[in-house]
Design brief:
Largest sheet: 4 strands, mixed
Strand content: 25-35%
Radius of gyration: 15 Å
Number of strands: 8
Helix content: 25-40%
């Protein structure tokens, strides 16, 4: 697991790991995911993330049933639950990922995709800081 230290910069929580990349516009998905997890925890969220492991057949995440393509993060807090797939600018959603997001949304869940661009613009932190919707 990448160690990621978060600090306050211009009123925003900013993990240092994202500032140590060679280019400010190329963030590895793993680094972005780690930064989001740390930020969410600092803001009082519980986070579940299931990391893939390298096997003789490539990278695999052990799942059963229809788990292929399930979103990278499940975040629970502040009266809300979020399902988020994490992608960098080069990443593309696979059909299984698109199907999971659509199924979760159809069931009324807050499901979507967060990108490194969303991180740079502060949109992820804004969503994590947003008050819960009235039920």
């Amino acid at each position: 697991m990448t160690t990621c230290t978060v600090k306050l910069r211009l009123g925003r929580l900013v993990p240092n790991a994202l500032f140590t990349r060679r280019s400010p516009h190329s963030t590895a998905e793993r680094d972005l995911t780690d930064a989001i997890i740390e930020t969410a925890r600092l803001l009082g969220w519980r986070v579940a993330h299931f990391r893939p492991a390298r096997t003789s057949r490539g990278w695999r995440t052990p799942v059963a049933g229809d788990g292929a393509g399930f979103p990278d993060l499940v975040l629970v807090g502040h009266g809300r639950i979020l399902y988020r797939e994490i992608k960098t600018e080069r990443g593309r959603l696979r059909p299984e990922q698109t199907a999971w997001i659509a199924a979760l949304r159809e069931a009324g869940a807050d499901a979507g995709v967060w990108t490194d661009e969303d991180w740079r613009l502060g949109a992820i932190e804004s969503q994590l800081r947003a008050p819960s919707a009235a039920h």
